[in-house]
DNA sequence: AACATATATATGGTTTAACGTATATTGTAA
DNA sequence: TTACAATATACGTTAAACCATATATATGTT
């Protein structure tokens, strides 16, 4: 794939996108409503940021019925995957991100199945 | 030190700053005129971007006479240094960056000493 | 002191990015 | 076909980033 460095870092430079990516990095694929809930942000806001990540092929998507699942694009160059990995292990335990994970995990436990109520 | 993730990636998301950082990553400390020459950009433009990098403590500086030397801040959190390292090894050989290194190396050879003519 | 070199900052204009709100699309189920 | 749930997009506004040009500061030299 063809990744532009500047674009790649621009995608990481917004906190909403970074939080979403960190969740995907750790949890694998996630649907929009899971992200919306975990990050506690409006659906259009999440959706617009995810559209950008998809446009630049940082993530790829899979539709399952009404749900659209997003995950980090495994075809990214190794160095870019490394950056995401390094970032995740470096900041995954900071308050902000730790809280995101908790909210998401609680949600998953409650609904038993994968997605929103 | 206290590094904000969003800010860190914002600093990497501009091509001028990224090119400068990649040069510092590989070459160690560099003065403004070396960067100006290697990147072939106007002095105020370089200077403004370096000021941002310094403001957010991505780089630190050392004055030597008229020259101001910039280098990557070794006090950055390990994950951030890792990101820079990973990025450097991942994109250092792409055309743009390779060319920057060549120009800088030619310059250093010519002037024998460290800095500008 | 006067001047030159290296670097930094200020100003004003232009472009890009983000946001909230409203609305459209797509799929499912009755 | 109507209704609903999940997701995507459009529109208008606000804020932030970047740039080129001009000017200021700091250091060194004569």
Question: What are the main properties of this structure?
Answer:
DNA-binding, 117 residues, Arc Repressor Mutant, subunit A, 3 strands, three-stranded antiparallel beta sheet, homodimer, mainly alpha, 62% helix, globular
Structure at a glance:
The structure is a homodimer of 117-residue chains. Chain A is mostly helical and 117 residues long.
What do you see in this structure?
- Two copies of one chain form a homodimer.
- With about 120 residues, chain A is mainly alpha-helical.
- Chain A has helices spanning about 5-10, 15-25, 30-40, 45-55, 80-90, 95-110; strands at about 30, 60-65, 65-70.
- Chain A has one domain (about 5-100): Winged helix-like DNA-binding domain superfamily/Winged helix DNA-binding domain (Arc Repressor Mutant, subunit A).
- A three-stranded antiparallel sheet of chain A has the order 1-3-2.
- In chain A, strand 2 and strand 3 form a beta hairpin.
- The interface of A and B includes residues 9, 82, 87 and 90 of A.
- Chain A binds a DNA duplex (30 and 30 nucleotides) through helix 4.
């Amino acid at each position: 794939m063809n990744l532009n460095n500047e674009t790649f870092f621009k995608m990481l430079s917004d906190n909403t996108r970074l939080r979403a990516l960190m969740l995907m990095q750790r949890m694998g694929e996630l649907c929009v409503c899971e992200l919306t809930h975990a990050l506690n942000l409006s659906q259009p806001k999440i959706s617009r940021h995810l559209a950008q990540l998809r446009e630049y092929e940082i993530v790829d998507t899979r539709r399952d019925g009404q749900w659209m699942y997003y995950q980090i694009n495994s075809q990214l160059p190794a160095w870019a995957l490394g950056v995401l990995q390094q970032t995740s292990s470096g900041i995954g335990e900071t308050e902000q991100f730790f809280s995101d994970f908790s909210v998401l995990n609680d949600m998953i436990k409650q609904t038993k199945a994968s997605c929103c109520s």
